[in-house]
Amino acid sequence: MKISTFAKRTALIVGLATAGLSQAQDIKLGFNGDLSASPSAQSGKAGVIGIQAAIDDINAAGGVLGKKLTLVIRDDQSQPPKSIQNMSDLIDNEKVAAVFGPTNSGNALAWKHIPNQKKVISMGMIGSGTDITKPTAAGADNYMFRISMVDREQVAGLVAYAARGGNKKIGLMGETTGYGQGGLKDLEEIAKLHGITPLATEKFGVADTDMTSQLNKMKSAGVETIMVWAQGTPTGQLVRSMEKINYFPAMLSSWAADNVTYFDAAGKTLAGKPIFMRTLVNPSTPAQQKLYDRTVAKLAAPSAFPFVIHGYDATLLIAAAIRQAGGTDGVKMREALEGLSAPVVGVKKTYDKPFSKTQHEALTAADLSFVKWSEDKLVPFADDITKSLTASDFKR
Q1: How far apart are CA 207 and CA 220, in angstroms?
Q2: Nearest CA among 186, 44, 38 for reference residue 124
Q3: Using alpha carbons only, what angle is made at residue 107 by residues 106 and 111, rounded to the nearest 5 degrees?
């Protein structure tokens, strides 16, 4: 009896040890972004859904280099200090091979020095701030990559639209946050590349509800097209303010107007005023429709689906880098991403050498789509101008 018990215990210990070894051999990936605190949290949740869907598919096909992928999730609650703490925890304690996120651009800018110092890949798939993927110094190795919208690429598309339409009576507006002022800087610089001098430039607070003073200045200056960079709620309040003075110039805005917070602030009647850009309007390929059908029930709103695609494709690119690098060494993974030897077939598109030593954005203006609200749905926007735009029009 004692021998039998000893044998059983030995077998149990061996089994547990084997299971522990198997788990130790898994390749950990991390997510660090807002999942609960800000209106953008719905984007973070959608991104995680996409990452996990890709991990499930990769593992079902045998994993990467014979190992399974696992995801370690950290909610930064939209707070830079928390996001910095999470980043260190994921890299130093969890030993992740790469980190996805964040949801908010400001958080990425707060901790981008960490993955660069630790030589661990950060694959952005939500935050769109232009400076996120810029190297920390000229010629420095850069571990910040992205597959998502980019503010400057959106600006390139929107200013190209205005310029091709021959409308140079433009006014610029931006909220006073880092997001708004970063976008305003991009607008000013790219407008200059097209030979456009704004007739007026105005700012407003993110919590402002009345922008009639700024709009009256736009009107007096003869502005016919307003280009605005702000989050969803203040953009909605801006449209409300237009109604107050019955001044409705053409309006081109950041993609934050796709958020339900914009729709709620603007209201159904006014929501369709701005034209903006997204990586996707509606599923348009069998692969996109399949992923949509698989995940839509988990989304806070169907409009968050592009972030599912961003997360899914970002995971495929990381998996490809691990395979090409022959492991999870950060330096080798960075070099692999900067020179992927084979195309990666994603859900958004096929990525054929999407990155280089000096270019860490997988999507550019040519990959984006013009969109607007119609009733309570996002719909593609097209006219003679959008149809005539070519890659050479997107100055940056």
Answers
A1: 25
A2: 44
A3: 120
Q: Answer yes or no: is 233 within a domain.
A: yes
| Contact between residue 26 and residue 69 where contact means Cβ atoms under 8 Å apart | yes
Q: Are residues 22 and 170 in the same domain?
A: no
What is the span of the domain harbouring residue 184?
152-278+369-393
Looking at the structure, do residues 160 and 210 belong to the same domain, yes or no? Answer: yes
Give me the residues of the chain with pLDDT under 50, please.
Answer: 1-3, 6-8, 10-14, 16-23
Tens-digit pLDDT profile for residues 222-236: 999 999 999 889 999
What CATH number did the domain enclosing 115 receive? 3.40.50.2300
Tokens at residue 214, please?
């700024």
Q: What is the pLDDT of residues 316-370, one digit of tens each?
A: 999 999 999 999 999 999 999 999 999 999 999 999 999 999 999 999 888 999 9
Q: Which of 210, 200, 263, 216 is nearest to 237 (CA)?
A: 210
* Pair of tokens at residue 325: 């690098």
> How far, in Å, CA of 396 to CA of 174, rounded?
19
d(CA 44, CA 5): 50
3-class secondary structure, 202: strand
Rounded to two decimals, the pTM is 0.84
**Under 8 Å between Cβ of 89 and 110:** no
